[in-house]
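Comment thread on ticket #2218

A.B. wrote:
> Attaching the input chain for the structure job we discussed in standup.
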Amino acid sequence: MAVNARLYSAQQVQALDQRTVAQGVPGFTLMMQAGQAALDELLKRWPETRRLCILCGSGNNAGDGYVIAALAYQKGLTVKVLALRTPNELQGEAACAVHLARESGVTIDDWHSGFEIPSETDVIIDALLGTGTRGEIRPPFDSAIACINAAPQPVVALDIPSGLNADTGALLGETVEADLTVTFIARKFGLYTGQAPDVTGEIVLAPLSVSEATLSDSDHTGELLVPERLQATLPRRRPTTHKGDCGHLLVVGGQPGFGGSTIMSAETAARLGAGLVSLATASVHIPPALTRCPEMMVHEARNGLDIEALIDTATAVLIGPGLGQGAWGQGLMQAVMSASGPRLVDADGLHLLAAGYAGERRDNWILTPHPGEAAMLLGCSVPEVQADRHQAALALQRRYGGVIVLKGAGTLVVGGETPAECFISPFGNPGMASGGMGDVLGGMIASLLVQGLSPLESAASGVLIHGLAADDAVRDQGERGLLASDLACYARRRANPDRR
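C.D. wrote:
> Ran it. Output below, let me know if you need it in another format.
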């Protein structure tokens, strides 16, 4: 795992900071490096910048803002600093930063309610609140954040957008909507999930003087999925590889009128390399399934008895898309649950699991709920799930075992309590807000599962391919109008990283 792909809690990053200082790097040196890194990134994106407006709160986040003010002023930029806390009250490195700004010639004005960002400003810098913020955003910070968001200029957030919970990605109230977030020392978990993608803009890591050795042996929370992972998890096949080596997936679902979901799941699984794909569905869907993908082996499923032999010959089973929650779906679910092999449970399968198999816990299955299904499985509300997606996924894993894929922006993959069993995908886009995206994701994950990847690695690599494929498709044709079935060809390319 690349060290810079690790994700940390705010407390863990604070410990990294303290360790680095204890190793002989002065705290103010780290603050100077943070300010320089943020200013460099700002000028890289907006090289014509001549006028900055910096809003400073308290603590080291404000200190970073004052350092940028000093450095920018020394470069000849016009700098306007607005202080929401009296600068003379700041302590430690932040007080040193205030002194540097004043010594450099920067004028510091007090923030007042009703203030508007000067129209001649080129870029706004958010140095209001840092990663330690937990409670509701209160005055005067709420009005200052609203002022930033009302302004038309681009916004750079220092370390984290003010108002965002660094651990959960939840919004604590009024939150800065940044175009660029320069985060320091290490990646904060909350920057990549929950509602964070709405407010972070592009995220750039500035590790400062924190060494890789310090990062490597420090506690962390999870890992960010990166494209390079696929090179290791999806190696080139041997010349003698045959279909029997690549697994047999059985997809179960598709009550009358809901066949599209299972057809997409099965076709996507084939596109990602499953050696054989069988589809057990209502008879009305057999002709369209074979027309869409003649490589499928399609079977009529009148009841659970019809699929028992298929389950026995399959490497793994995917059940749920279009299954329904009536007697037909219940019968098929019972047949699948009676067997002991690997399976992926999605959509209606999750509802049947909660209704009929309370207390069932298995190590070899993958559950793929969206937030609504996660809330149903946990017996809580969707806002409760979204308030702390990581804890919700951990709670599901403790209750049901196996691997949990909590879908949504910043999809989470959790296979246990350790950081090595927790992944977040930073990929994907709003174009994916269309029907069937979860069905093709299930097909991707299940395809990798039958090809021999572990449940955890199948889920992680499947989620990664899914997001990358959607981003590839959007780069080609744009977000609006993206269909789930568009992803198969892009996913196939991503599943063959040696060909890129």
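A.B. wrote:
> Thanks. Noting for the ticket: The chain is about 40% helix and 15% strand.
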